[in-house]
Amino acid sequence: MKTREEALRYGASFQGVYQDMPFRDPNWILMRYGKNRKAFLWTYEYQGQMRINVKVDPEWRDFWRNAFASVIPGYHQNKEHWNTIILDDSIPDEDVKRMIAESYDLVVGKRTFYHMESDIR
Predict the structure, then answer these.
(1) Which residues in 74-83 are b (16+ Cβ under 10 Å) and which e?
(2) At 53, phi and psi to the nearest 5?
(3) Considering its fold, how many domains does the chain have in total?
(4) How confident is the model over 50-78, as pLDDT tens digits?
(5) Pairing mode, strands 17-20 and 39-46
(6) Residue 71, pLDDT score
(7) Rounded distance, CA 29 to CA 31, Å?
(8) 51 - beta bridge partners?
(9) How many CB atoms lie within 10 A of CB 6?
(10) d(CA 5, CA 3)
(11) Termini Cα distance of the chain
(12) CATH code at 88?
């Protein structure tokens, strides 16, 4: 996954979500869960790189950060509960999707099964 559009398209595939631009800045586009308005996917460009922020269970936070150099503490967010993913194509799409799905699950408050590629066509 290398583009904002890919991340937003995947984020939009979850039930009950909507896209938001809370800062009226086209660089910051979020996906939120409608029932509680919590964001689970932040997209933005920083230092010439497309990045996404995802909520993470603290028990998994360091796993993802240690597994991939392109997963770092959440930019402009609580470093314990958010990771930033640099979309440089160094992380397999399925792992990026899993992190987005886990973020969605955390803001929804229940476990769902993350979407496979065939689910969003």
Answers:
(1) bbebeeeebb
(2) -110, 135
(3) 1
(4) 999 999 999 999 999 999 999 999 998 88
(5) unpaired
(6) 98
(7) 7
(8) 44, 86
(9) 17
(10) 5
(11) 16
(12) 3.90.1150.30
Range of the domain at 24: 4-120
Sequence letter at residue 45: E
3-state secondary structure 5-40: HHHHHHHHCCCCEEEECCCCCCCCEEEEECCCCCEE
Lookup: tokens for 3: 């583009």
Other CB atoms within 10 A of residue 64 CB: 21
Q: Which two tokens stand for residue 102?
A: 């886990």
Determine the residue type at 59.
E
User: In 14-119, which ranges are E strands?
Assistant: 17-20, 29-33, 39-46, 49-55, 71-73, 82-86
pTM for this one? 0.89
Query: CA-to-CA distance for 112 and 66, rounded, in angstroms?
Result: 25
